[in-house]
Design brief:
Layout (H helix, E strand, L loop, with lengths): L1 E6 L3 H9 L3 E7 L3 H8 L5 E3 L2 H6 L4 E4 L3 H13 L3 E4 L8 H14 L3 E2 L8 H4 L7 E10 L12 E7 H7 L5 H10 L4 E6 L6 E9 L2 E9 L1 E2 L2 E5 H13 L9
Parallel strand pairs: 1-2, 1-4, 2-3, 4-5, 5-6, 7-9
Antiparallel strand pairs: 7-10, 8-9, 10-11, 12-13
Helix pairs in contact: 1-9, 4-5, 7-8
Bound molecules: nicotinamide-adenine-dinucleotide.
Nicotinamide-adenine-dinucleotide binds next to α1, α4, α8 and β13.
């Protein structure tokens, strides 16, 4: 069975620990040690207080569920320690030079980087953008202001522009925009709305290309313990881990 270490022991890591199948969780690290200790009570994993010791431990895959900054800081070291990497905070790869450098390093070391579908549907087939024209790609995300740690009385447009700009301002809320960009191989127009009338995290994706057109609307329930995180995102990484070792690949 594949063995994993969790980098980040917050909400998503808790859901992974409670639901994982097909992988063995053997190592935990969090910059807040008490979070790793709390999670350690739910599984038999070893708790590390030092990132180098964590990365040097004997397991196959680092699962990052921490932050954009953590993914950027540790991605190269993970690969250099001979481990594959699953990145939840995909916003880390918004800038092409960094993305290319990490990709090149993984290729040269024979390692893999996995990016879960996260809080949306449709990421799989959007990859056709790498071989066929996609002329329009829009992500309109609407969240309750609570999820964005702010207050407002009416529907308010917070951001309109490119994904790699949006993630700089909202690194905890717009990872999806960067995932779309990486899948499609083109830029994404992003609108981020705060709306006190919604109680779900809503992602509307509009795609127009040589294939025709598609509109996908996902109305996500927030995770019980963290309104910023859609439950679907956690389920997606659990599913990715479950399938990592399967010989049959489904979807593009
Ligand atoms: N791709 C997607 O669709 C998607 C969806 C939801 C969440 N996310 C991202 O996944 C990540 C985890 O989400 P969550 O809900 O579990 O967050 P969370 O805040 O509940 O937990 C994150 C944990 O990581 C730890 N952490 C942060 N920076 C760290 C660092 N540099 N080193 C070690 N530990 C660190 C924190 O102390 C915390 O315990 C976030 O970056 C979030 O934005 C992505």
């Amino acid at each position: 069975m594949l063995t994993i270490g969790l980098l980040g022991c917050g909400n998503i890591a808790n859901i992974i620990v409670k639901n994982h199948v097909g992988v063995d969780i053997v190592a935990l690290y969090d910059q807040m040690p008490e979070r790793a200790e709390d999670l350690g009570r739910l599984c038999n994993a070893r708790i590390f207080r030092d990132i180098d010791e964590f990365l040097s431990a004997d397991f196959d895959i680092v699962v990052e569920a921490a932050s954009v900054a953590a993914a950027q800081a540790h991605a190269a070291a993970v690969l250099e320690h001979g481990k594959d990497l699953v990145v939840m905070s995909v916003g880390a790869f918004a800038e092409k030079p960094f993305r290319d450098a990490v990709n090149d390093l993984a290729r040269s070391l024979g390692r893999k980087i996995y990016i879960p579908s996260g809080a949306i549907f449709g990421l799989d087939n959007l990859k056709i953008g790498q071989v066929s024209g996609i002329h329009r790609l829009l992500l309109r995300t609407t969240k309750n202001p609570r999820s964005l740690n702010m207050e407002c009385d009416e529907r308010t447009l917070l951001f309109s522009g490119a994904a790699n700009e949006c993630i700089k301002h909202y690194p905890k809320n717009t990872n999806v925009s960067v995932a779309l960009e990486l899948a499609a191989g083109r830029t994404v127009d992003v609108e981020l709305w705060a709306d006190p009338a919604v109680d779900r995290n809503v992602h509307e994706i509009v795609i127009e290309g040589d294939f025709g057109d598609a509109t996908i609307t996902v109305r996500n329930l927030p995770s019980p313990d963290n309104p910023a995180t859609s439950y679907l995102a956690a389920l997606s990484i659990v599913t990715l881990l479950k399938n990592l070792d399967e010989p049959m690949r489904i979807g593009t």
